[in-house]
Amino acid sequence: MTEETEQMAPADASAAPFSAIAVVGLGLIGASLAATLAEKMPGATVFGVDTDAATREAALTRGWVAAASAPDDDAFRDFIQGPCELVVIATPVAAVDDYLARLRDWGFRGVVTDTISTKGHILAAAAEMLPAPERYVPGHPMAGSEQNGIAGARADLFEGANWILCPDEATIPEDFQRLHELVTGISARVVSLRREEHDQALAIVSHVPHMVASSLMQLANAHADDSRSIMRLAAGGFKDSTRIAAGSPKLWCGIAFDNAEALRSGLDEMAGILGSFSEALAAGDRDTFTRLLAEAADARRALPAAWVPSTEKLLEVRIPMVNRTGVVAEVCTIASSVGCNIQSIDIDHISEGNAVLSLILTDEGDVGQLSIQLINAGFSVSFSPIMPKEYAHVD
Fold first, then answer.
1. Residues 6+ apart with CB under 8 A from 254
2. Strands 136-137 and 111-114
3. Sheet of 45-49, strands arranged across
4. Cβ 154 vs Cβ 129: under 8 Å
5. What's the CA gap between 242 and 146, in Å, rounded?
6. What predicted TM-score, i.e. pTM, was given to this entire model?
7. CATH classification code of 199-301
8. Where are the alpha helices (DSSP H) in 235-305?
9. pLDDT digit string, tens, across residues 139-159
10. Given 13, 76, 210, 341, which residue has the most CB atoms within 10 angstroms?
11. How far apart are the first and last CA of the chain?
């Protein structure tokens, strides 16, 4: 370890679940993560890695990282082999293998997560290349901007955003607990999702919408005359609906082909829905047309206006864990599936083979269904309401 790396190790990182974090890729997501960590978890040392010298310099100048280097610099290797506890891979999929190979060659056995929007490739690569593949927990923040790179990065990008984590039966409970604490500590909200469901779900809620937004811009642009008068009418809802079409074509082309099968399926389904509107118009079928609009309107109104839970209605769920692997992944995925938001996770070790998983829930979701599904899954469960003053993480 170099003298510089030793000096980067924080004297007190008690306020952060990880004392030393490497953020690999200082684009929009990686730089925003570094920025919010610097603001909300100053006890942690953040080391930035990027191929672009100007990007590294910008991150250093803004105080978002304690140090930064190119991938080939010795400082990166020294940080990984020294104080680093968590590596966050925030690169395009094409760069994943190179960084996983470095972690393999450097013998890194700490926690690894990522921010990549498709999981097919990185899941296979991590399983094959990482020295401790059970310590890889796939992640994906559902946040972004039409601005690209560090120029669009900001510390509040993840405020109130959903952040997907994909534990499985091999995930070490304490690793997931610490990642959950990190994500909620930067004001994001953890959604647990089965790994095999991630790419299909993201195709529907993220990738297809981007292609639809791009198609709307193609449609408007095709009908714009030389004076561009039609574009003057493109305000309000049209601008909101097409904002994401301004994203990086290269980045989104990569995402699309990385998730081609699920995206094609979603686009085909979308074409069918649009076709239903067209067929109803052709048939003069006002009832069907109205029903299609009403179904969409009802579904949209059912979305919460804001994800702001009440701190006056917290609920503790306690679940004994007795010689059972995968309990954290199973429980958290069940909670997410019924809309329950886990504010914090605690693991109380009673003996070598026994522990109690304690979840603090906000007032969202269907607690009744949560109870039923947990019991049906073979868990013994107890619920008890708590007051905010009893819960250390509530202001």
1. 92, 93, 94
2. parallel
3. 67-69, 45-49, 20-24, 86-89, 111-114, 136-137
4. no
5. 10
6. 0.80
7. 1.10.3660.10
8. 237-242, 249-258, 260-283, 286-301
9. 999 987 767 899 999 999 999
10. 76
11. 40
